[in-house]
Write a structure and sequence with these properties.
Rossmann fold; 2 domains; 14 helices; 13 strands
Length: 300
């Protein structure tokens, strides 16, 4: 397998290309810009006529990606966190219309506001829309999650939110490529009316989304991206979300963490793993980059 040294953003782009991507639609904004730029410059992407267009704003990017998904193709939409505010109507409604071809919405958050006007956490949007969320802890996982995201989207027929942060997007690491998947053939959805959200249709689609919540949770419990690691010292249990796992590992360079650690890379939260951590440990420490979204859910 080929090995590449890539930025986190570039690893996502390569993962999308290798995962059968047919089109990427984006509005530029740090720290997300390099994803689309990488695809635009990629020789294989050009040979396979992968669409890679800048859109006039994030809303039109979201709508274009949804249109490609409607045709049965795998598509990705990219933006920075504040751009999701612009795309919110199309983004939230896409959870109700559902998708046909796999659709990944990649949103790059900017904790500490290196190049942004706020540091809002896009996981809130994913939770609000009630769709699966993926949050990589390193560049290899970013690559693999992008490939997996298309499969997850097509499995449940909903868009998937891929959430990254500046420190992952703009740091480099080696990644190992996997096999290249061919692009989907054109295929219309079995019920084209699902994309017309008249109230009578929307109500039925919304019931389906609600019924799917248990399936999303079961998939999270079984996900390779959520992992429970045992520890000898039960005085403390640690939940590390996404890139925060790296911060934990940096404090234990010999990988000798004495406490049980629950790594979170796929949402909704794996309830059984969390219950196990709570039942075994006296205190819980939650590590997450951005807002205390997991911490607040646990308090509830």
């Amino acid at each position: 397998m080929q090995k590449l040294l890539l930025l986190g953003a570039e690893a996502i782009a390569q993962g999308a290309i290798d995962g059968g991507l047919s089109g990427v639609y984006a509005y530029p904004g740090t720290p997300s810009t390099e994803i689309t730029e990488y695809i635009q410059a990629d020789k294989y992407a050009k040979e396979k006529s992968i669409h890679s267009q800048w859109s006039s704003n994030e809303k039109t990017a979201m709508e274009a990606g949804l249109g490609m998904s409607y045709a049965g193709k795998r598509a990705m939409v990219c933006m920075k966190h504040v751009g999701l505010n612009v795309a919110a109507v199309a983004f939230v409604n896409s959870a109700i219309t559902g998708v046909n071809g796999g659709l990944i919405v990649t949103v790059a958050d900017d904790p500490s506001m290196h190049s942004s006007q706020n540091e809002q956490d896009s996981r809130f949007y994913g939770k609000f829309a009630m769709i699966p969320i993926l949050e990589p802890s390193n560049q290899q996982e970013a690559y693999e999650m992008t490939r997996k995201g298309f499969e997850l989207s097509e499995k449940f027929q909903v868009p998937v939110l891929l959430r990254i942060t500046t420190r992952l997007s703009h740091s480099r690491a080696g990644i190992t490529r996997l096999d290249i998947k061919k692009q989907n053939d054109n295929s219309l959805p079995s019920d084209p009316r699902q994309f017309v959200l008249l109230p009578s249709i929307a109500r039925n689609r919304y019931k389906g989304l609600l019924n799917n919540q248990i399936n999303f949770e079961i998939d999270s419990e079984e996900s390779e991206f959520n992992k429970y690691t045992e520890g000898k010292d039960k005085n403390l249990g640690i939940i590390a979300c996404g890139l925060a796992l790296n911060y934990l590992n940096e404090n234990y360079p010999n990988n000798d963490i004495p406490y049980p650690v629950l790594k979170i890379g796929q949402y909704p939260l794996p309830r059984k793993m969390i219950e196990k951590l709570f039942s075994e440990c006296k205190e819980i420490l939650v590590l997450e980059e951005g807002a205390p979204i997991v911490e607040e859910m646990l308090k509830g």
